[in-house]
Design brief:
With 228 residues, this protein is α+β, with helices and mostly antiparallel strands. The chain contains six helices and eight strands; from the N terminus they run βββααααβββαββα. The mean pLDDT is 90.
Length: 228
């Protein structure tokens, strides 16, 4: 399949690490925390992560986190090449698992077309957050924020919720920066040894409210530590 690209002008932003947190420097010189950092630092997520680490042990948790991150990065790269019409499978022969997961999800990826942006920087001056969206394109003919994830098993719906919040943030940034309104949020989770898990959600006010709560919780924590 050959994908069509609409081609919006990309935003140039550099990322910096401050006390283990990722920030982006906007073209205007503002420094905003990444959307992923803000969401991952919400109290509920931190508590759930702490319980998981306690259950599996610190060493196993660290090993699994590294494995998951590496798998996700490689899968993203293969998918990006595919959507950019430049995929050469010979480049990924030494990455059998991500390549297999890509092939399992290829049929789902073929439902994407008319691509506006990929791996693109976005930010909001209103919310003072920034990040990089995986893909903005039509999915089944509907303009969407599309997020690619990987997992070793099917995820429970409750574990997908923060993905929707993250995608909602990108939708708001897109509207603010480009005056383009998406219709839906699409989460594609490539699963080891199974068909991909696909979730299509409308842009709900509920996700915005959760995003605002996460931003406020992050600011409260950050301002306290910085003495602000």
């Amino acid at each position: 399949m050959t994908f069509t690209h609409i081609g919006l002008d990309p935003i140039e932003m550099n990322a910096v690490e401050v006390d283990g947190k990722r920030f982006y420097l906007t073209p205007e010189g503002n420094k905003y925390p990444s959307i992923t950092t803000v969401i991952s630092n919400n109290p509920k997520k931190q508590a759930a992560l702490a319980r998981w680490r306690a259950r599996v042990g610190a060493e196993q948790a660290q090993r699994k986190s590294i494995t998951s991150s590496t798998r996700g990065t490689r899968y993203h790269k293969i998918t990006e090449d595919y959507l950019n019409n430049i995929l050469d499978l010979n480049n990924y022969k030494d990455k059998p698992l991500p390549l297999y997961m890509f092939k399992q999800s290829q049929g789902t990826l073929d439902r994407i077309n008319n691509i506006y942006l990929q791996e693109a920087a976005l930010y909001s001056d209103k919310l003072e957050i920034a990040g990089r969206v995986d893909c903005i394109a039509e999915f089944d003919g509907v303009l969407s924020i599309i997020d690619f994830k990987t997992s070793d098993k099917i995820k429970k719906e409750e574990y997908l919720y923060d993905y929707y919040v993250q995608e909602c943030a990108y939708a708001l940034c897109l509207k603010e920066r480009y005056d383009i309104q998406v219709k839906q949020l699409v989460t594609i989770v490539a699963i080891e040894g199974d068909q991909p898990q696909v979730s299509v959600q409308p842009v709900r006010k509920e996700y915005l409210n959760s995003l605002l709560e996460y931003i406020q919780a992050y600011r409260n924590k950050y301002d306290k530590k910085s003495g602000g």
